Request: fold
Amino acid sequence: MNPRDDDPEFAERRPTLDDLRADYDDDFGRSRSPLAVAKRRLLVLGIVHIAIGILGGLWTLLLGAAFVAERLNGDCDVEEFLLIEAALLAALVLVVMVIAGGDAMIHRRRRWLAIFAAYTMAALSVPFFLFGIWALLLLNRPDVRREFARRPVQSQHDH
Reply:
């Protein structure tokens, strides 16, 4: 018998099943190992990078269409038009790299691409800066580095 069971004050403070204070460490069946936590964080960051990349790509395409429409009206000289289109094409390439980096984070492959995407995200603007820094901090953790270093398991269909 537990000596604390005789203590009436302890019995009053003992958490019950419906006590929310006892749920602070519950993770609802998810593994709390550092590897599992790193995988979940990479998944979240990968999805964020892909979503922001898609939105940035759509915005870049919309700006490109607006500049083409402006050029058709004759409001823009050729040199300015080519410079703007080159900048939009470079932005589109960066957006594609951010999307590919998000995919690399999700699948834990091509760490260099994930890091490039994180630096690009950090360089874009203040709201995206936070996601980029978060990704850089996570990608440089030793447990996450090990995840990227692991060789993917080949299925029997790959042979």
Residues 34-72 form the longest helix (39 residues). The chain is about 70% helix and 0% strand.
